[in-house]
Write a structure and sequence with these properties.
The chain has 8 helices and 17 strands. The protein is of the alpha/beta class and 337 residues long. The two termini are 38 Å apart.
Length: 337
């Protein structure tokens, strides 16, 4: 469904400038933006993907991954089409690298229908994931407003490249901001995301924390791209200083796909080394991802090292946290439990 975009400026000669993501595309009449999801028609900018669903499922929140916001809770998870990045190793490249093809018949889902579906399936919230939800801005905003009235939580699984003005509009309706930090150098972001710098991503993430939104950070460690100590220490130190030591950091295993299908999987020793770096930088909760059965999936008390939450893949096998505290030493565990 086509709907007029919420954030754009009209320029001269029929051009418009999108203000939804940080690319801030200047789009000539009849053209689409870099993401292919927004088109200029007679000097007005329209979203082409309002309510258009590419993927839909009910998942535990651990799949985002989010580990410190009601572990084991069920969320209605939805994605649309397109992305403002073109990550060469994207696991969802078939929808994220979409370039304006036709939608599947019957793919439209109205905001009210999404909320009703979540309630019907016993979900505690809505998670916009699978592709970059910023491109779905108008739709997710309309749905989030309805969701909050029905007592549902909301979650963005994002690359963080949203503009500050778009984030400010959405922030009052957002509970969880699960952000990818893909590296800690402009060179890495130029190779992976095709953007000149990444500082503005950090700034919006810091704003999310300041707004009281629950933030968790994910770094998918790709051999030869972002697995050097300098970048890993940079991410961990930034999290500790700017978001706080209680902010969970997920270091996840890369699996070869798309244009990086020739690479090897991330060695588990690399992930364990990243976890050690995170802890040495002062982080209390550093998790390993995409390594089923590894103890790095579990939550331990930072004070007494007691096992608090045992996980296997996306399932919570045991949760010993009582009233948000460790049952052994009584220290408060950050998050919502």
């Amino acid at each position: 469904m086509k709907k007029e975009a919420l954030l754009y400026d009209k320029l001269t000669h029929g051009e418009v400038q999108c203000r939804t993501c940080q690319r801030r595309c200047v789009i000539a009449e009849g053209d689409a933006g870099w993401c292919h999801t927004r088109v200029n028609e007679r000097g007005k900018l329209y979203s082409l993907i309002y309510g258009e669903v590419s993927s839909l499922s009910v998942n535990p929140i651990e799949k985002k991954p989010v580990f410190h916001f009601y572990p084991g809770s069920r969320w209605l998870s939805l994605g649309s089409w397109g992305c403002n990045f073109r990550c060469p190793g994207c696991q969802n490249w078939d929808i994220a690298h979409w370039k304006g093809k036709d939608f599947a018949k019957g793919s439209y889902l109205a905001p009210k229908d999404q909320v009703d579906m979540a309630l019907r399936h016993g979900c505690v919230g809505l998670s916009w994931t699978f592709n970059e939800p910023t491109l779905w801005f108008e739709y997710t905003l309309d749905t989030a407003k309805l969701a909050k009235k029905k007592g549902l939580y909301t979650n963005y699984v994002t690359n963080g490249f949203i503009t500050e003005e778009a984030f400010d509009i959405f922030a009052p309706y957002l509970d969880v901001y699960r952000v990818d930090i893909k590296g800690f150098s402009n060179t890495t972001y130029q190779k992976i995301a095709h953007i000149p710098e990444f500082g503005s991503i950090l700034k919006v993430t810091e704003k999310a924390k300041e707004c009281g939104i629950h933030v968790e950070v994910v770094t998918n460690i790709i051999p030869g791209f972002n697995d050097d100590d300098t970048q890993l220490q940079g991410i961990a130190s930034w999290i500790n200083k700017s978001l706080g030591p209680d902010t969970p950091w997920h270091v996840t295993r890369f699996y070869p796909d798309c244009k990086l299908a020739h690479l090897e999987e991330t060695p588990i020793t690399t992930l364990e080394h990243a976890q050690e770096i995170g802890k040495n930088c002062g982080l209390r909760y550093v998790y390993l991802g995409n390594v089923p059965g590894h103890k790095g999936e579990n939550t331990y008390c930072y004070n007494c090292s007691a096992l608090l939450i045992k996980r296997y893949v996306f399932d919570v096998v045991k949760n010993r946290i009582q009233g948000g505290k460790c049952p052994e030493c009584g220290v408060t565990i950050a998050g919502r439990f």
